[in-house]
Amino acid sequence: MNATTPATGLTATAVAPATTVTTTTDSAEIVVDAHDLRKNFGSTEVLKGIDLTVTKGEVVCIIGPSGAGKSTLLRCLNGLETPTSGSIVVNGHDLSDKATNIDKVREQIGMVFQHFNLFPNMSVEENITLAPTMVRKVPKAEAHETALRLLKLVGLEEKIDARPASLSGGQKQRVAIARALAMNPAVMLFDEATSALDPEMVGDVLGVIERLAERGMTMILVTHEMGFAREVASRVIFTDAGVIDEEGTPDEIFGNPQSERLKSFLSKVL
């Protein structure tokens, strides 16, 4: 069975069913629903009861100081870290249910890291088509066409045969975004995707993310780019010391912050 998402216009083989939880709120489809999420590393409590619900098409930017638990939260949502307690439901699949196939759920979650993690011995096209052909058994011809469409989306169609070593940092990150999109995910997670880039390359990557937002892609971004969060986010979440200190629209967070901690943070970064 095939399915097409409006966000990317891609067609991919449907994922085998896992444990499914149907959730709606105000008629909006919930894509990510985390409740009372806690994560300890030894005696250190990094996440302290996070509640997070993200609906289809939302762009949620998570901001906050270093060490606030932002990246750990994303890694829990993607199943790369196992929460100490709490529940996570992604696209209807309960990650805490032992019957859930976590690998199958991960196929529905695109993740873009600070560092690009491209395979250096493969071409750009091979990096993008590897997972669809190996994991989802997408025919090579279809995967090739998908790679072409995605490279056009990120402005790198002329680099399809290039090796990562010949690309700039910004180009590598755009390829990494295309690679994540090739799995036709229900949600994209970005963990400080521009923090390792030279300043002149940041705009190109943010431009790609903004185009995805315009196409309706559901996204959760940990970012230090306050201007981007203010312009593109549906909702901004400020985390501090493992808790959500304040959340709201960009206008509310940046224009009328309520907590003293958020006011202090913004005074240093704006």
From TrEMBL:
Gene3D superfamilies: P-loop containing nucleotide triphosphate hydrolases (3.40.50.300). The keyword Magnesium does not apply. InterPro entries: AAA+_ATPase, ABC_ATPase_HisP-typ, ABC_transporter-like_ATP-bd, ABC_transporter-like_CS, MetN_ABC_transporter-like, P-loop_NTPase. It holds the Pfam family ABC_tran. GO terms for molecular function: ATP binding; ATP hydrolysis activity; ATPase-coupled polar amino acid-transporter activity. PROSITE patterns: ABC_TRANSPORTER_1, ABC_TRANSPORTER_2. Residues 32-266 form the ABC transporter domain. It comes from the Bacteria. It is an enzyme of class 7 (translocase). Keywords: ATP-binding, Hydrolase, Nucleotide-binding, Transport. It catalyses: a polar amino acid(out) + ATP + H2O = a polar amino acid(in) + ADP + phosphate + H(+). Its EC number is 7.4.2.1. PANTHER family: AMINO ACID IMPORT ATP-BINDING PROTEIN, ARGININE TRANSPORT ATP-BINDING PROTEIN ARTM. This is ABC-type polar-amino-acid transporter. It comes from Bifidobacterium subtile.
